[in-house]
Write a structure and sequence with these properties.
Blueprint (H helix, E strand, L loop, with lengths): L2 H12 L9 H17 L4 H16 L9 H16 L14 E6 L6 H15 L4 E6 L6 H12 L3 E2 L7 H14 L4 E6 L7 H14 L3 E7 L4 H14 L3 E5 L8 H10 L3 E5 L7 E3 L2 H8 L5 H10 L3 H12 L5 H13 L3 H6 L4 H4 L11 H8 L3 H5 L6 H11 L3 H32 L1
Parallel strand pairs: 1-4, 1-5, 2-3, 2-4, 5-6, 6-7
Antiparallel strand pairs: 7-8
Helix pairs in contact: 1-2, 2-3, 3-4, 4-11, 5-6, 7-8, 9-10, 17-19, 19-20
Amino acid sequence: MFESLGERLERSFKILKGEGKITEVNVAETLKDVRKALLNADVNYKVAKTFTDTVKEKALGQNVLTSVKPSQLMVKIVHDELAQLMGGTSTDINLDGKPSVILMSGLQGSGKTTFSGKLANMLKTKKSKNPFLVACDVYRPAAIEQLKVLGEQIGVPVYSEMDSKDPVSIAKSAIEEAKAKGHDVVIIDTAGRLAVDEQMMNEIAAIKAAIHPNEILFVVDSMTGQDAVNTAKEFNDRLDFDGVVLTKLDGDTRGGAALSIRSVVNKPIKFIGTGEKMEAIDVFHPERMADRILGMGDIVSLVERAQEQYDENEARKLQKKISKNQFDFNDFMAQIQQVKKMGNLKDLASMIPGVGKALKNVDIDDNAFKSVEAIIYSMTPRERTNPAILDSSRRMRIAKGSGTDIQEVNRLIKQFDETRKLMRTITQNQGKLKLGRR
């Protein structure tokens, strides 16, 4: 996401490179290019014009320090304004009710049902909530079944009424059921249509009036670009929703919806969907998104994802094993599983400053670990815990069993040995540093 916009903006800033100071002429030339880049990314025209006018006003009003180049100052101003354009700061979801009732809205195909499952999973695993999913899409074929499958996958119960075609009645009954069973969050998945129509609007407005939700989220497919913003405006006029969810941000999207939607409907983007897995949901942070648009990476989000998979007790056990040179293939496999849980590999790489740009045309397959896993699973338990016994005949057997060749097996064992040596050196150095401080 935002790859082409980031590149266009970078080219725009080059206009100021080599310039000794910011002037009205070179700023106008730079911002003309910035506006084109925004419009090309499907940003609303009024939003793009207001944005560049604000940047121009701020740039011309600044004294450039001798230590700061004009192009660097322009990047800073554009970064801050991009973050402001997308809301400035992240906005929390309202979970005040007993139970908290969250109503999902949006067009058919926007990803409402999948996002309902992701949100339930996030609230359960990260906020220790006891969510309850409700199937109120009584029209779309297999919508109820889809929600049930997702619910089973994440261990969250789903309320549905196969005989009823009245979503208002289903929603009211579900809330009563949630109260009786001690659920503290109710997430209601509603029906969508292929386009905004009066029947759909009346129906969801009736659900809202009947259940008085604590939070109404509008789910929009970011791939639809400017149409997403127009749809958001129509929904907001009728529902006065509390926040926006942008789905499919891992796809080939130009990012115009993310940059326009806040200005047009004056409602915050609260969450983004970044993949198909149930864990592929992030709280939307405008500053971090501005960092990523301008190729600065997003180390904070990367660290947060790593910490979610980090188990302190397991880490201590692992450190002891490394220091005693007992790190084995079982530990190696456990580390791979933790990395996989963190999300899409290319998305993770893009969070490291400079790496995203370097990997722009590189296809990083999420199945990159498959052959490694196959090789390790083809080892006997004894071989996994005692890598030193892996002689040539054992390696040949492992290659056949994993459907790989001997070179791949040898390469993995060599990488494993190098990793083990490096980890031991780091652990020993940390120990020396601690002793040196005493």
